[in-house]
Amino acid sequence: PPVDPTAPVAPGALPPDLLASLLADGDDELVAWTLRNAIDARGRAHAYDELLSGAMRLIGERWVAGEWGIAEEHLASQTAVRALDAVRPAATPELRVAPLAVLTGVAGEHHMIGLVCLGHLLAEGGWNVANLGPDMPADEVARFVAEQEADLVAITAALDDRLPGVEATVQAVRQAARLAGRNVRIVLGGRLGSRPGIAGTLGLDWAGGTLSSVE
Question: What global pTM score does this model have?
């Protein structure tokens, strides 16, 4: 049915399975409207953690189960990116001189929607954000971090076989930061970031799997 874009949505009124269907249909305008109302009602971290993440998880499950094909999964991801661009925080001149956060997926990591969501949260908190996207070589991340004098590096990784890439990126960034005489915080998100004790094992400043847990 037609939707009034000025009408508010009650918190929790839209379940993730309905948003998953909108994403798979490619309806980025309605997805953006839904996310915007969820952000207004519960905050950006909750909207992304509960609603969007839940919808993307359902899409993955339906693809694995054979209910949806690769086409629907790819369309949903592209729709999510377009919708997120529509609800991103407004840029302000102050952000150009704010502390710099570099966001990246390790080599072999192809998930990037979480990076976009984190970038929004950091920008809303006053950070200047450089999102390098997925599948970045460790040495390139380290070079960029050193040259741009970054203050924070946020890495995402989903699967266990990405662990060597995470280790390589952390080591490269730490070495580049030492040579530059800078103190750079390194954090890990994504499914791998939820593993208990991984922050201490890899020498990270923080690790977690949800935006609402970001310190």
Answer: 0.88
Digit-coded pLDDT (tens) for 20-59: 999 999 999 999 999 999 999 999 999 999 999 999 999 9
* Distance, first Cα to last Cα, the chain: 40
CA separation, residue 57 to residues 20, 39, 64 (Å): 9, 19, 11
Distance of CA 55 to the CA centre of its chain: 14
Write phi, then psi, for 140 (nearest 5 degrees): -70, -40
Which sign does the torsion angle of CA 127, 118, 192, 208 carry? positive
How do residues 103-142 score in pLDDT, each as one tens digit? 999 999 998 999 999 999 999 999 999 999 999 999 999 9
Distance between CA atoms of residues 137 and 104, nearest Å: 10
Kindly tell me if the per-residue pLDDT of 5 is higher than 60. Answer: no
Contact assessment for residue 132 and residue 144, using Cβ atoms and an 8 Å cutoff: yes
Place of tokens 């977690």: 208
- Residue 41 structure tokens: 């009602």
152 to 9, 15, 40, 45, 140: CA distances (angstroms)? 35, 34, 27, 19, 16
- Whether the pLDDT of residue 215 is over 80: the answer is no
- Which residue in this structure is represented by tokens 């407004």? 90
127 CB-near residues (< 8 Å, 6+ apart): 95, 98, 99, 100, 101, 152
* Sheet containing strand 100-105, strands side by side: 128-131, 100-105, 152-156, 185-189, 206-207
